[in-house]
Write a structure and sequence with these properties.
Blueprint: H1 2-16, H2 20-87, H3 92-105, E1 109-115, E2 121-125, E3 152-153, E4 157-158, E5 168-177, E6 183-191, H4 193-201, E7 209-213, E8 219-221, H5 225-229, H6 237-241, E9 246-250, E10 253-259, E11 266-272, H7 275-278, H8 280-326, H9 340-379, H10 384-399, H11 403-421, E12 427-429, H12 430-447, E13 452-458, E14 466-468, H13 472-483, E15 490-498, E16 502-509, H14 516-524, H15 535-546, E17 551-557, E18 561-569, H16 573-576
Parallel strand pairs: 13-15
Antiparallel strand pairs: 1-2, 1-6, 3-5, 4-5, 5-6, 7-8, 7-11, 9-10, 10-11, 12-14, 15-16, 16-18, 17-18
Length: 579
């Protein structure tokens, strides 16, 4: 009755909460109204100033890019000239090798020429091209003013020094002294075609372009040079040379200028105001795109509000479900508030968690009980035939008045049973387990009248670690009964060695060996009355306690012998409180 009343109260509480459809309808109407108002107001204001600003920005970006490209170009030239100046003092062979290498790796360098103060050619390196026997006019010689400036760059011209090769170049000249202290001029011809092609491809608007002039207003390169030479076009470079870097508008033309570092070149961009008319459609698209971004931002803000009412509780519920899935046993659920639908889901999930955890606890207790029963059954299996035969041997020794041997055999049997019991503990130290194994070997050696010998090779650092009791005895028993039965001088070796986090126990015999099928059969064979605790049981107990990565492995070869390895983890005695 109380449960029904509680359900009725919860149902009424859910009905009083805001529904998801109401929230979504309100938000959609609000977004549409807000977006329309923002679009109308913003479109009117932005459109008034966007057309001119767009043209200015486009022009500045284009010219800045050209200026950066030419600056990088001149910096490379400056580094080449620095290398030449640093190596001009070497001996003739080293100097020739240097310039040959320079012309090979810097393909833009056409030639490097040395002149004296009178302009006479002293030396020339041209990368395999021959000099003309007679040069009518040397366009590459430039009598520069003496200064510390590294780059004195000429206007573009044709190289006239080489036979059959007339590349378009600029000459970079620099004064310095040779190894004898005489003043010389170094002139380096650099191909200008790459820069020219780059400038030809630069467009600002539909009809805009850019060109290069020097600090005095002389045109270094113009994409429409033929029109200028023929008088069909004119650039007012003298007036532009007096202006600082920046953006200027004169009549219907907009100029953007930037100075190139390392030299006196200036990049000039030219665009036309008339092109603003043709760019209206593009500007309108940009404005609409901006407005859409604004609408998206507003929608995002509204989405945050929706998230607080709907998404956040739903995400919390989904996260709770994921947490329950990953760790159902220790999961603690906290009720989640939200819309009517979320609250109903939260109640159902909470009820399901309680029911599942109750069932899991029941299953866990049953598994623990079953596991303990299985372990106790495995531990309690002792071979009765071994006990009968041992007592029989002791009685025979007493009849034969071999009291000392009988005493030692009784002592070994007592120690064997005392360690087997171990006060009810499943885990004992390796030291005790080895004592148990040695007691068993002593008893069997008396019974078999010394038909075999045994040896222990133990890493004493491992003695304090724990292992399952009665681990080695079944392995040794298998070696005696099946391995050494047909061998005249049997040897059993017990080894214990430590690895990084594990311990390996090995029982090695020189018996008749086994085939692979027999090895697999031993690991699958169940316990019988004749065999006592079998190797399979040892393997099962190790896996139950320590995991599937541990256990028994068998290697054997017919007529050679058998090696059985037992892998267990390193576990200290104080971890389990075993004594």
């Amino acid at each position: 009755m109380k449960k029904n009343n509680r359900k009725k109260v919860d149902h009424k509480a859910h009905l009083n909460k805001i529904s998801l459809s109401t929230i979504m309808t309100t938000l959609v109407i609000g977004i549409i109204l807000f977006a329309v108002i923002v679009v109308l107001v913003t479109l009117i204001k932005i459109y008034q100033v966007s057309m001119e600003q767009s043209a200015v920005t486009s022009s500045e970006q284009a010219i800045a890019q050209v200026q950066n490209t030419i600056t990088d170009y001149t910096e490379d030239i400056g580094e080449i000239m620095e290398n030449i100046r640093d190596n001009i003092y070497m001996d003739e062979k080293a100097k020739n090798d240097f310039f040959s290498y320079l012309l090979k790796i810097h393909t833009d360098v056409v030639s490097v020429v040395v002149y004296d103060t009178n302009g006479n050619l002293m030396n020339c390196w041209s990368g395999g091209f021959e000099l003309k026997d007679k040069v009518i006019r040397n366009l590459s010689y430039n009598k520069v003013i003496e200064s510390d400036m590294l780059l004195n760059i000429s206007t573009p011209h044709v190289n006239s020094l080489l036979k059959g090769y007339y590349p378009w170049v600029v000459t970079i000249s620099h004064y310095m002294k040779d190894s004898k202290g005489e003043k010389i001029q170094i002139a380096m011809d650099i191909r200008f075609s790459n820069i020219a092609n780059y400038i030809d491809d630069v467009g600002i608007g539909q009809h805009g372009y850019c060109f290069i002039m020097d600090g005095s207003g002389n045109i270094v390169y113009h994409p429409q040079q033929q029109l200028i030479n023929s008088g069909l076009k004119k650039e007012n470079t003298k007036e532009l040379a007096n202006l600082e870097d920046g953006h200027y508008t004169k009549s219907n033309v907009m100029y953007t200028m930037y100075t190139v570092e390392n030299c006196d070149w200036r990049v000039v961009g030219v665009s036309y105001v008339d092109e603003l008319i043709t760019s209206k459609v593009t500007n309108m698209i940009q404005i609409v795109a901006v407005l859409l971004v604004v609408v998206l931002i507003v929608a995002f803000v509204i989405g945050l509000f929706i998230s607080r009412l709907i998404s956040r509780p739903a995400n919390r519920l989904a996260k709770a479900m994921s947490g329950f899935e990953s760790d159902a046993e220790n999961f603690k659920y906290t009720h989640i508030n939200g819309t009517r639908e979320i609250a109903a889901l939260s109640d159902s999930f909470e009820h399901m968690v309680v029911q599942i955890q109750s069932l899991m606890e029941k299953v866990r207790q049953e598994e623990i009980s079953l596991r303990k029963t299985e372990l106790n059954a495995l531990q309690s299996q002792i071979n009765p035939h071994f006990l009968y035969n041992t007592l029989d041997s002791i009685a025979w020794m007493c009849e034969e008045h071999r009291s000392e041997e009988a005493v030692e055999m009784v002592s070994s049997l007592a120690k064997l049973f005392r360690i087997s019991i171990s006060k009810g503990h499943e885990l004992i130290t390796l030291e005790k387990e080895l004592q148990h194994a040695e007691s068993y070997l002593k008893i069997q050696k008396y019974r078999y009248k010394s038909q075999f010998s045994y040896d222990f090779n133990i890493d004493e650092a491992c003695l304090s670690y724990l292992c399952n009791k009665i681990t080695l005895q079944p392995i040794i028993e298998n070696a005696i009964y099946h391995g050494l039965d047909m061998v005249d001088e049997g040897i059993i070796t017990i080894e214990v060695s430590g690895q990084e986090e594990d311990i390996v126990l090995r029982v090695i015999d020189n018996g008749v060996g086994m085939a692979d099928e027999q090895c697999n059969e031993i690991l699958q064979r169940e316990t019988s009355e004749k065999t006592g605790i079998g190797i399979k049981n040892v393997n099962d107990r190790i896996k139950i306690y320590f995991g599937d990565q541990y256990g028994v492995t068998i290697k054997s070869e017919l007529d050679v012998g058998t090696e059985i390895s037992i892998l267990i983890p390193k576990i200290q005695e104080d971890r389990y409180g075993t004594k």
